[in-house]
Each structure stands twice: as structure tokens, then as C-alpha cells.
Amino acid sequence: MDSSTVASKTKPERIACPDGPTPYNFCLSTANDGFGNAITIGVVTAQDPGDPYGMYDQCHSNISQFGIKPGFMLKASLVTSVGRSMDTVQSIDILVCNQPGGVGSWISDHLETGPCTDMPLSTAWTSRYSYCIWGTDDKGNGVVAGVNQ
């Protein structure tokens, strides 16, 4: 292989994140990832996957086709959107996130809450949660979340 065509990996460095509201704690960039790609990533800090103050975002790869708005959502916003308090929430797991029709025909155009067994797709995992939230969020994502208190 000709050495002039071999990708030369460069070490990532911390850079300023894009202007505007973002969930990023910091951003990293490299001019070459070793495969010839320039890469910039935003790093979000969360304690674990169930961190109630973690974020989720555009859950379908072709958001414009389904009218999903770009941007991040706090998992905690699901709880407050259905009128529940965050005071006793220990974890929030995003169980399903897709375009609403991809979740199932039973998904509503608004968020609902109740026992996980009230959902049509309730299965054995529903017993792991204090309650569930399901429906379409403010960005247009079809979401099912399990909440533990």
C-alpha cells in the first residue's frame, strides 16, 4: 500500500462545543480517526443508564420523515410532563424510543402514565418498575419509559 494513501491517526483534543443549548459536558475532535474521518463528538455525563437526569434524543434515524423535532430531552421531563414529582424518582429507563408508529398502533399522541401492566406491550420486565410512562413526547418521539421510586 502506498504510504500517501494510509490514514494517519491524530490524537483527539478538547474543543469548544457548538453554540446554543446542548447537553454536552465537553466536546472532542480529531482531524483523522485512523480511517481518514474527521470526527467531533459531544460527551454527556450520566451516572448510569437509569440516571433520571440523563438525556435521550432523536430516537429514529430519519426524524424528518416522521415529523420528529431534533434535539435532546431530559428523561426527567417525561415524569413532570405527566404531572408526577421527581422527588422520589431513583431511575428512569427508556425502554422503547422510535417514531410513534414504530412503537405500536396503541401509542397515543400524548404522554400517559400508570402501572406498567396497563400498557398493551406489558411483559415480564414491567414488574421491575414502580410505574411506566408511554406515548409521544414533545419532540414527537414514541416513548416507553420505566420509572423506579
Overview of the molecule:
This protein has 149 residues and is mostly beta strands. It is 10% helix and 28% strand. A hairpin with a 5-residue loop joins β8 and β9. It is elongated, with a radius of gyration of 19 Å. The mean pLDDT is 83.
Q: What's the gist of this structure?
A:
It contains three helices and nine strands; from the N terminus they run ββββαβαβαβββ.
Q: What separation lies between the terminal Cα atoms?
A: 58 Å
- The total strand number stands at 9
Rg over CA atoms, rounded to whole Å, is: 19 Å
Percentage of helical residues? 10-25%
Strand content: 25-35%
Low-confidence stretches: none
Number of helices: 3
Order of helices and strands: EEEEHEHEHEEE
Q: Kindly state the mean pLDDT as a whole number?
A: 83
Which short descriptors sum up this protein?
about 150 residues, mainly beta, three-stranded antiparallel β-sheet, about 10% helix
Strand-helix topology:
Layout: E1 13-15, E2 26-30, E3 39-43, E4 55-56, H1 63-66, E5 73-74, H2 75-81, E6 91-98, H3 100-103, E7 112-114, E8 131-136, E9 142-148
Antiparallel strand pairs: 1-2, 2-3, 4-5, 6-9, 7-8, 8-9
